[in-house]
## 1
Amino acid sequence: MNRAARGALIGGAVGALVAVAQTVRAEDDPPQVVAVHAVRGAAQGALVGALVGWVLDRTSAKPASGVAAYTEVAKDAWTGAVDTAEQAYEVARPRLEHAYEATRPRVEHAVEATRPRVEHAVEVALPVVELATELARERAQDLAEAARRRAA
């Protein structure tokens, strides 16, 4: 896998995570807004990552194997892909905003309806998670002690 593809994958993942982290900080945003921001962040991150990977491929110390002749074609294709992505975003944006506005009341109602059940589930699960954490901690300490004895 070349650097541009790896850069696109890594950039997309990082872009989505950063967008979600920034959106989640604003607690007023419903899940649809978080999803839209995550998709936008992933797309932007993938574009930047692919561009960085492509530049790294072009500037690497070893000579390119036959691909160097197609640099201009690849550059034009990249520019076309970016333009197409921007146009797709502009076309989809009003529809996404409309879908968000149409579903917002239903989502808010669903959140309010499920909140007591989720809170109850957390209350029921918390002692079990605490017990599992304590058992795992004890087991890890036992294993660490056994490893120390073996190493000595």
## 2
Amino acid sequence: MAGMRLMAGACYVAAMSKTPERMIAGFTTGERDYIRRELDIFFSTLPSVAEGFQLKTWRGGPDAGKPKLSPIAKGLIARGLMRLDAGGHLPRLFFTEAGLTALRAMMMDRRLADPKKFAHVRRELGIDPVSADDTRRD
């Protein structure tokens, strides 16, 4: 009887020890966090989806001058949701059409992205209308 309890307890520990990566709106949890960090306000500047995500480059070693890609960025590129543009002064990641569709779905879900915090992204993607105040600033 005691052996059965140990086996049952081990079963629950194994089943609960690792949380699977859930795909919601086309992105995993880590990818959604990465996207929110990149599109959040940065030193009073609102980043643009069209400008892409700026990447750092390796300064030395065998990869000198090549872009530094996090595992999350590599995954987004591998799945065809983003593409790497290393042709400019600084390398950037840009959303592909499939990535823009997934980003639009993510931004429309209030649980995944705060509508107030990411209002600039929602306007850029055409989710929210551009207000008269925004047009006067330009």
